[in-house]
Amino acid sequence: xxxxxxxxxxxxxxxxxxxxxxxxxxxxxxxxxxxxxxxxxxxxxxxxxxxxxxxxxxxxxxxxxxxxxxxxxxxxxxxxxxxxxxxxxxxxxxxxxxxxxxxxxxxxxxxxxxxxxxxxxxxxxxxxxxxxxxxxxxx
Length: 139
Fold this sequence. Notes:
Layout: E1 2-6, H1 18-35, E2 42-49, E3 55-56, E4 62-63, E5 66-72, H2 100-110, E6 114-120, E7 123-130
């Protein structure tokens, strides 16, 4: 298995619970590893700004969200599961509980972020977008 890291070093801080976000990323990376084709598979981790997105905070100010993407080169999500993949008890794996992505979605939502997926055979991308901490926030 090959892991490719593509991190933007200029990204600012975001307000998250480190333990919960670690759970999110471990869950998504584990899913990507299971979906990829064994040792020949590739997982790509990428952080960046998407200049076309703006996030409006509760105080009315807007900011670019910090984005994290996890790509894999597995077979993709089954078409019948894709619309409901973040719902509890939806799983494409034999013996899967369908709770992993539901938990990921809840944690991201609890942090005022959002998660999306784009999947075709040979390329699945989970994108997490999180609000950036205000400049005057304590670090």
